[in-house]
Amino acid sequence: MKRAFYVGRFQPFHYGHEKILNTIAEEVDEVVIGIGSAQKSHSTRDPFTAGERVEMVLKSLENFPIRHYIIPLQDVEYNALWVPHVKSMSPKFDVAYSNNPLVIQLFTEAGIEVRRPAMHERSIYSGTAIRKSMIESKNREWTEYVPPTVAEVIDEVGGICRIKRVSGNDE
């Protein structure tokens, strides 16, 4: 049995993440999904809590074809300790999936095989672009880029109001 590890901030979880996870599911038997920067929330870059992001991923993957684990991971401000931290918080895994240069470097140095999944329409499916649309959009265009269950979670937690408030200034 082969188990993979895939980490993202998922701010929010979107169709690009879903596409990568479907690719991973074709290559392994199980996947550990790391919710990165779990301690961050309520900012323009990281508006959602770890629990909200876990819920987004969990609900989006209700019919996912392989067993999956969702693990919130706090940042470690000492990069040389990040992989041991991940390994201590996660079920054992055989391969990591990432396109992040730092993550690739850290796993490679730790002797873990890293696969680079193809990005799915990165210019459209980007957390940065989706958050910008949430802030600027008056008619919910951002919902086109996330699974309906993610939009439901965002609505339930007042996510649009939150991101608009925290992205404002004090003038």
Structural notes for this entry:
With about 170 residues, this protein is α/β, with parallel strands linked by helices. It contains 7 helices and 5 strands. The chain has helices spanning about 15-25, 50-60, 80-90, 100-110, 125-135, 150-155, 160-165; strands at about 5-10, 30-35, 65-70, 95, 115. Strands 3-2-1-4-5 form a 5-stranded parallel sheet, sandwiched between helices. α2 links the parallel β2 and β3 (about 65-70). α2 packs antiparallel against α6 (about 150-155). InterPro entries: Cyt_trans-like, NMN_Atrans_arc, Rossmann-like_a/b/a_fold. Its main location: cytoplasm.
Largest sheet: 5 strands, parallel
- The share of residues in helices is 25-40%
Number of strands: 5
Separation of the first and last Cα atoms: 57 Å
The residue-averaged pLDDT reads 95
Strand order of the largest sheet: 3-2-1-4-5
Quaternary structure state of the chains depicted = single chain
Order of helices and strands: EHEHEHEHEHHH
The 3D shape can be described as globular
Based on CA atoms alone, the radius of gyration comes out at 16 Å
GO molecular function: ATP binding; hydrolase activity; nicotinamide-nucleotide adenylyltransferase activity
Family: Belongs to the archaeal NMN adenylyltransferase family.
Catalytic activity: beta-nicotinamide D-ribonucleotide + ATP + H(+) = diphosphate + NAD(+)
EC number: 2.7.7.1
Key descriptive features of the protein:
171 residues, five-stranded parallel β-sheet, 7 helices, globular, Nicotinamide-nucleotide adenylyltransferase
